[in-house]
Write a structure and sequence with these properties.
The complex is a heterodimer of chains A (419) and B (357).
Chain A lengths: L8 H5 L8 H11 L3 H20 L4 E2 L12 E2 L2 E2 L13 E4 L6 E3 H14 L3 E4 L6 E4 L3 H13 L15 E2 L13 H11 L1 H5 L9 E4 L8 H4 L2 E7 L4 E2 L1 H11 L1 H7 L9 E3 L5 E3 L9 H5 L4 E2 L4 E7 L13 E7 L4 H21 L6 H8 L1 H8 L22 H18 L1
Parallel strand pairs in A: 8-9, 9-10
Antiparallel strand pairs in A: 1-3, 2-4, 4-7, 6-7, 10-15, 11-14, 12-13, 15-16
Helix pairs in contact in A: 2-3, 4-5, 6-12, 9-10, 13-14
Chain B lengths: L21 H5 L4 E8 L2 E6 L4 E8 L4 E2 H14 L3 E4 L5 E5 L5 H10 L3 E2 L26 H16 L9 E4 L11 E7 L4 E2 L1 H7 L2 H7 L5 E6 L2 E6 L17 E2 L6 E7 L14 E7 L7 H17 L6 H8 L1 H8 L27
Parallel strand pairs in B: 8-9
Antiparallel strand pairs in B: 1-2, 2-3, 3-6, 3-7, 5-6, 9-14, 10-13, 11-12, 14-15
Helix pairs in contact in B: 2-3
The chains are: A alpha+beta (419), B alpha+beta (357).
């Protein structure tokens, strides 16, 4: 114990410098905690980590650990060098779903901390890259005890493996004027509709929902989620001309022209001679830049809703994919709207579960079968907002052209009649 | 051992409203604008004039319960007991009263936390688990980040960059750390070393074969045992076979290097979202402080800071000045490896006479 600390000369280096040191934190658990179980775990964890630093190799292996009734939510870790570092030889992480938007009270954090030091290592991260609270390091036996305890007071596990994963949503309507959505409601509606798919992995691979309240996409939804919900609006942006004038007076015309007017991707802005601003709303693509710069003067419109993109992911296996627009705009106000969103998510996951290959992300499936097959599979009509450009290749069989054109004209006529 | 297990309560994602600051609850969806009173502090003003002040601080991300309680103590004593975390593991305290801001900053700094990370700063590096907990890591993550943030701390505490800079690190090529303005990722340079005695017992061979992005893995009999072999001419050393088949060891103390990528930007502001592009590789995986990787990151940041215009993210800047200029300004070599050969790569080639001299 206290007199048998592993030497950690390399890790000690990481206690120097001004940024908070995770090594100092683990050492506090080793030296200052009053539970000898935690002291020993922290000591052996540092020992194994030092060994990794010396040899430049990792020594954790996965396995199968779950809590009763679930097949997901635990990241099992067994040490390959457990004989040298026995007290941390089982070092599993529990992934716990945070509240949508990552809000906590200090009371809640203390309660979680108390439970965790009773059953685990005392190390925790807010949050992992998927968005979970990560309780890092406990034994197979204590995994169940810790889960039972926190599950009783309102916390549940997130996803791990080929399942619906824990969702993420930005600070959103709670603190941001750019928000065009009720991010928390969307997040909880979707995630809690798929609770079974979170806890019992039965999908081809992972499936992630991420919600961002505007095109700034602070949650990285388009690049990193299979189902991205992004806030937008379809009426005119709001311009407070008095605030525009104040901004111009403060910053100067040159600054406004160089940093706002000419940065608009569709040249939709014009600074008038009287220091007011004209907006060509028909050609505004809701990129958010001008609003980021002129926060008081410019705001999103009132007719708000969501753009939905499907299939974002990182490299494995076919290369990086951005999400693709499948719904340019949908309202999310009434309970019916939310039902429609949930149904769309269900259709998407069902179709992919049916047609995806093992370990194939939804976006990779779309890449393999083509967007049109996916759209037909989930019952979504084509829309020119789904493409950057129409087809370039003439290698396509188009003997159904007339029927497809007919569909388009009929849809347009229906839309006109409805408006 | 027969034992009665309690069935789980499948409560799923908890409701955040119960933990939200009352001023935020009251003005949910009714915010008007925000200001940046100073680095690390945000002021949001609601349409009715209500204010919420946010203080953001960087942490070590891997929190021990003592540190967690220290953060809670500060929240109780100096804030209103409400916190949230950003996706880069910064903690945020929200208060309705401006008078509480400075004492809170003082308390955070006295405990060694770093107030900053807002607006056009270098944000906290989002990162993965590394040698501390991952089963397939080529490097550590927390250590790389600690070493880099030690050097970038002033850029975190100040707002001196042309626009925000998101840095990420990832301890293997799966890149859980994500896209970033600057991404520091492990890049393996040699094919996996296969322990043929273990493959048939440990690996589900067909799924390992299916996992390979370049169809370089074939079933084979080695030493009379069913195993797998890799066509090393095809292998791109991505490490995708290693998670499902640990006997195909991809991590190598010498040959698993670091690479730096730039220009990943998930915002739609100005241009459409962009993925990061390779700029440097072959960087030694050099614990405990990875000085070579940090030096390259600082070199890129310096060039960006000096040459980019206000509001340009790194990708906007490179798009304006061109890649040849990027390599010139950073002094990084341009090699044959920078020319993409993956599917769709032709889109990245210049098929025009748009050339800057």
């Amino acid at each position: 114990m206290a007199d048998q600390h592993h030497d950690t000369p390399m890790l000690d280096e990481l206690e120097n410098g001004p940024w908070p040191s995770f090594i100092s934190g683990i050492k506090r658990l080793r030296d200052k905690h009053d539970d000898t179980r935690i002291n020993g775990m922290a000591n052996d964890l540092l020992g194994q980590l030092e060994h990794s630093y010396e040899t430049r190799k990792g020594y954790w292996k996965g396995g199968t650990v779950s809590v009763f009734g679930y097949g997901s939510g635990i990241i099992p870790r067994f040490s390959e060098v457990g004989s040298s570092f026995p007290e941390s030889k089982e070092f599993h992480t529990l992934r716990v779903q945070p509240p949508a938007g990552n809000y906590y009270t200090t009371d809640m954090l203390r309660q979680l901390g108390d439970s965790w030091e009773k059953w685990g290592s005392g190390l925790v991260t807010f949050h992992g890259q998927t968005g979970n609270i990560m309780f890092i390091g406990t034994s197979t036996e204590n995994t169940q005890h810790f889960f039972d305890e926190i599950n009783e007071y309102g916390w549940d596990l997130g996803g791990a493996g080929p399942c619906v994963r824990t969702g993420m949503s930005c600070v959103g309507a709670a603190r941001c004027e750019m928000s065009g959505l009720d991010e928390m409601k969307i997040h909880r509606t979707l995630l809690n509709n798929f609770t079974d798919d979170v806890h019992r992995p039965a999908l081809p691979y992972k499936f992630k929902f991420k919600v961002s309240g505007c095109g700034n996409d602070c949650m990285n939804s388009i690049e990193r989620s299979d189902f991205a919900i992004i806030g937008t609006w379809r009426d005119d942006m709001k311009v407070d001309q008095e605030e525009v004038k104040k901004f111009v007076a403060r910053k100067g015309r040159e600054y406004v022209i160089d940093n706002v007017i000419t940065r608009c991707p569709t040249k939709a802005l014009s600074l008038k001679d009287d220091d007011t601003m004209d907006v060509d709303n028909r050609n505004c693509v809701r990129c958010m830049h001008c609003m980021n710069v002129m926060v008081k003067a410019l705001s999103p419109g009132d007719d708000q809703g969501a753009t939905i993109l499907i299939g974002g992911k990182r490299t494995l296996k076919i290369g990086d994919l951005m999400g693709t627009v499948v719904v340019p705009f949908m309202k999310l106000e009434t309970e019916e709207d939310y039902e429609k969103l949930t149904e769309m998510a269900e259709e998407t996951i069902d179709f992919w579960a049916e047609n995806g290959l093992e370990h194939e992300r939804c976006g990779e499936m779309v890449e393999r079968i083509g967007l049109v097959n996916f759209l037909e599979g989930v019952g979504i009509e084509v829309d020119p907002n789904m493409v950057n450009d129409p087809r370039q290749s003439s290698y396509v069989r188009m003997d159904g052209w007339d029927e497809e054109a007919e569909k388009w004209f009929n849809r347009k006529a229906e839309e006109k009649a409805a408006s | 051992m027969a034992q009665d297990h309690r069935p789980p309560i499948e409560s799923g994602c908890p409701d955040g409203f119960q933990y939200m600051h009352p001023v935020m609850r009251k003005n949910y969806g009714d915010w008007d604008y925000h200001e940046h009173p100073r680095p690390g502090v945000l002021l949001h003003v609601a349409k009715n004039g209500d204010q919420i002040w946010t203080v953001r601080a960087g942490t070590q991300r891997i929190l021990d319960v003592f540190t967690l309680r220290t953060l809670c103590d500060i929240g109780d004593k100096f804030a209103d007991g409400y916190v949230r975390f950003t996706i880069r593991s910064n903690i945020e305290y929200m208060v309705a009263d401006e008078a509480k801001v400075q004492p809170m900053i003082d308390a955070l700094e006295a405990e060694g936390f770093v107030v900053g990370g807002t607006k056009n700063s270098v944000a906290m590096i989002s990162h993965t688990q590394g040698w501390l907990h991952c089963d397939i890591p080529g490097t550590d993550a927390s250590g790389v980040v600690k070493a880099m943030m030690d050097e970038l701390i002033d850029e975190f505490k100040e707002n001196n960059m042309p626009n925000r800079v998101h840095i990420t690190t990832s301890c293997c090529q799966i890149n859980c750390g994500g896209q970033g303005d600057i991404a520091i990722n492990v890049q393996h340079t040699k094919p996996p070393k296969i322990n043929h005695d273990l493959v048939s017992n440990v690996c589900e061979r067909p799924s390992v074969v299916a996992r390979c992005p370049v169809a370089a893995i074939r079933p084979a009999l080695v030493n009379g045992k069913p195993s797998l072999e890799v066509d090393e001419k095809k292998c791109i050393c991505c490490g995708a076979c290693f998670p499902p088949c640990p006997p195909m060891q991809i991590n190598d103390a010498e040959h698993s290097k670091l690479a730096v990528w730039v220009g990943g930007n998930h915002s739609n502001a100005r241009g459409k979202p962009t993925f990061q592009k390779l700029v440097a590789a072959g960087i030694p995986n050099n614990p405990p402080r990875w000085p070579e990787a940090t030096a390259i990151v600082k070199r890129i940041l310096r060039a960006y800071k000096e040459d980019a215009r206000d509001w340009e993210r790194i990708n906007d800047w490179v798009e304006r000045v061109g890649w040849p200029r990027f390599f010139e300004l950073t002094g990084l070599p341009f090699t044959k490896f920078h020319i993409d050969n993956w599917r769709g790569a032709r889109r990245s080639l210049n098929s025009s006479t748009h050339i800057r001299f």
